[in-house]
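Go through this:
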Amino acid sequence: MIRHTLAMAVSFAALVSANAALAQAAPLLDVTLKPGAADAQGHVAFVDIVAKIPAVDTPAGAPLLALPVVVANVEGVAKTMTGFEVVDAQGAVPLRVQDQGAGSPVEIRQWIAGRPVVGDLTVRYRAPTDNAPPIRGSGPPFGLRTEGGGLSGAGSIFLVQPVTTKPYRLAVRWDLAAMGKGATGTSSFGDGDVELPAGSADRLGSAFFMAGPMYRHPTELRTSGFSSAWLAGAPADTAAVMAWTEKLHAWYDINFKGGGELPYRVFLRFNPVNPGGGVALTNSFVATYDDKTTAESMKLTLAHEMLHTWAPTLGAHSSRTSDTQWFGEGIAVYYARLLPWRAGLIGANAFLDDLNETAGRYYSNALIDTPNDQIAGRFWEETLVRVLPYDRGSMYMAVVDEKIRKASGGKRSLDDIMQTLIDAKRAGVETTQETWLELITAELGPAAKTDFEAMLAGAVQRPSGGAFGPCFTASTTTLRQFELGFAGKSLTKPVRIVEGLVPGSAADKAGLRNGDEILKPVGLDNIQSDQKLTVTWQVRRDGKTFSITYLPRGKSVEVPQWKRVEGVSDAACKF
């Protein structure tokens, strides 16, 4: 089936050149970004946007434009932008606002046309930057924020898009006059002004944008391959770690048999709530830091996020609503420590430390058996749920790899399945969970499907002591489970009111009470991973403001770990 589908994809590819002229004839959606000047503190307060959208054909009463109000817990500029003006050949277009999905992780604002709109449309507005901690707590680094004399943000947060399925060529232009000498602009699409061939208009939303007096590695501008950019304030050794990341990028290209020639950008930026994470976007990813982050500590985050560019994705079966993060994030966690180790860019002990951190978080998770189909709906309200696709998926990958190696006598591994899926992705073939099942069943027989369904249902994944090569063996340790002490959903609302306080918990003993208002969000993912980190809430109660600090831990549990086997050299460890 896979070979047949790949053959069809090759046949389809033959049509590309025949359609090239038609694609170039698509209308050009032209977007100009004009950031304001930085103040004495290096803050840029806004960016002005002008979008020229040709060939519009929207009837009265239909959605004309859209912009998310909230994306993955991050608020955009839909409600805060100013000077919003929409005109066509007849003049100002009357618009009615319609919001959809209020209270959900993705809330969309649409502008409904008050009359028919035909022909060329111009949209103008000012998007303000906002460096306040995110109201809703943890979320990806999407927001439009300023630092180091520049600004950055994801297009989904601040770029209004037409509601259409019409293909457009896309131009992104920068007007940096107000930023002064030395300022440059870049995006997931490339450095400076860029023009892209025909495609979906919503590409704007899946890209990242940065402008200002940027630092870069390498220092010369590139139209292909690896490039990175950041503004003032990043860790001092960032350039050295970006050089490390460039080497890993080149090694991924070798390991995955191509792909490294494509444009790829790493953006770094400050995150006041949940530093150390990142997010993958079109041809790029964003990694984050705070004033305590070292660039060295970011290496495996960089390895994880960059892996998404090569790694395939799985669509869900048409009759299944379960999310496939277990795959996308699971393979990223699994390979983000393994491939740098194989490449000689980290040592065996660094591999072991990351493995045990993941194992400790997973096996001590009080919600470890949460079914996969419940994760998406609870992802942003509960840190214990949020890490499950990552941790469970990575351990499942280790189990599958171990079984394939055993069944094939060491001749095959998870690597072979991954390369098959990557080849399908490059050929434009859609792969689903059924594709995954077909591949692992071919390796392991019908039991593979039973094991897979059990994993989705929440079964704990347990690689053996020898699953990670001859260098490591099984061990155990005792850890205390992370326990917030109250309902996590209390932290996802614009006004954070404590609900569901757990009697006798550390939060209760520290003095937290139902009805307390928590004034500032705190990133919990890193705290969950570290047994010694406390959490401090700024609380308002009865008109008084004060701090409450406690160690968010509950009962002790025994969890699997791995340890070095004495007498086995680093050179003999890799598998």
The chain has a mean pLDDT of 89.
